[in-house]
Amino acid sequence: MNPTQASSITVTPLNFFLDFRNATPVPLNETVCENWREIHHLVFHMANICFAIGLVIPTTFNLHMIVLRAMLTIGCALFIIWATLFRCALDIMVWNVVFLLVNFLHFIYLVYKKRPIKIDKELSSLYKRMFEPLHVPPEQFQRLTGQFCNIQTLKTGQAYAAEDKTSVDDRLSILLKGKMKVSYRGHFLHNIYPCAFIDSPEFRSTQMNRGEKFQVSITADDNCKFLCWSRERLTFFLESEPFLFEIFKHLIGKDITNKLYSLNDPTLNDKASQKMDQQPTLCSQLSVMQMRNSMASSSDSEDGLQHFLRGTSTASSLRPPSPHLRGSQKMKPIEESVEDDVFEPASATRVKAHP
């Protein structure tokens, strides 16, 4: 650059402060609406009404999300019609096309989630009797029974489990059809009817101890059909489903209680067991106490079983306790902390009888 050119350049200082004194006033009609435009077409107002209806639906309504997305979809469609035919605004039409696609896809997804779940006919009675009263959704029941379990059959006389031979670590099953009988060293204990766990006591007692064998024999008294889970895969699945985990804890505990009650009344049939499912508390507690006391009154487990089996014939008619025994100091309540002792080996549960 020449010195002459450099000298001809003038530098203008920057002024960052506004001079409000020299500002020109803006006419009033450019900032304040004096002349309102005419009202838009009826399609425009119908679109806004759809938006309003979708937004005021209460969340307590079961299908509120589906109705909301449907109203938004209809409103966007009306906005597209208004922008295309009456406004001729390309930007409004494009934006509403995007909103229409988003809401329509979400609407289809919500409707798909609300579709009716079809449960197999063989499992429908199981769901209605055991899981539906506990508010288990059909989709969760379908995932529970559709991934890692199968339906197996046994003919009359075939064994589900052999005493001291069959491992308890492999499976957990629920009887769907037929009847099974449980025996211990040749002594009949009780029957197993449909919609009841087959091996719930073994599942409960061996959650911490693996590698044990069945202490009873379970054989099919009729042609039986049962639902069988892989125990290991079921355990992993329930760890990821806290709700179903609590449901299984309740169902297994209730089934064990029913089995203890059936020890007290071997003639219990399927109809009586269904009634007992509704009100099992008092009878179950009495049978548990009676079984524990009879088993603990003998130093030998087999003699204790014989004593308990002989007592079941007369224990079915419950007699009211004498008022003189209500305040007796000899009657001590059985602590709940020793509940698991019922399922431990006999050598670990022997209790010396008091004179």
Give the secondary structure arrangement, pairings included.
Elements: H1 3-8, H2 42-56, H3 64-87, H4 90-113, H5 121-131, H6 138-146, E1 149-154, E2 159-161, E3 171-177, E4 180-184, E5 187-192, E6 196-197, H7 200-205, E7 217-220, E8 224-230, H8 231-239, H9 242-264, H10 270-278, H11 281-296, H12 301-315
Antiparallel strand pairs: 1-8, 2-7, 3-6, 3-8, 4-5, 4-7
Helix pairs in contact: 2-3, 3-4, 9-11, 11-12
Provide a short characterization of the protein structure.
The protein has 355 residues and is an alpha+beta fold.
Structure report:
This protein is of the alpha+beta class and about 350 residues long. It is about 45% helix and about 10% strand. It is built from twelve helices and eight strands. It has helices spanning about 5-10, 40-55, 65-85, 90-115, 120-130, 140-145, 200-205, 230-240, 240-265, 270-280, 280-295, 300-315, and strands spanning about 150-155, 160, 170-175, 180-185, 185-190, 195, 215-220, 225-230. The strands form two sheets. The protein has a four-stranded antiparallel β-sheet with strand order 1-8-3-6. Strands 2-7-4-5 form a four-stranded antiparallel β-sheet. Helix 3 packs antiparallel against helix 4 (about 90-115) and helix 9 packs across helix 11. The longest helix has 24 residues, at about 65-85. The radius of gyration is 38 Å and the shape is rod-shaped. The N and C termini lie far apart (about 125 Å). Residues about 5-20, about 280-300 and about 305-355 have low confidence and may be disordered.
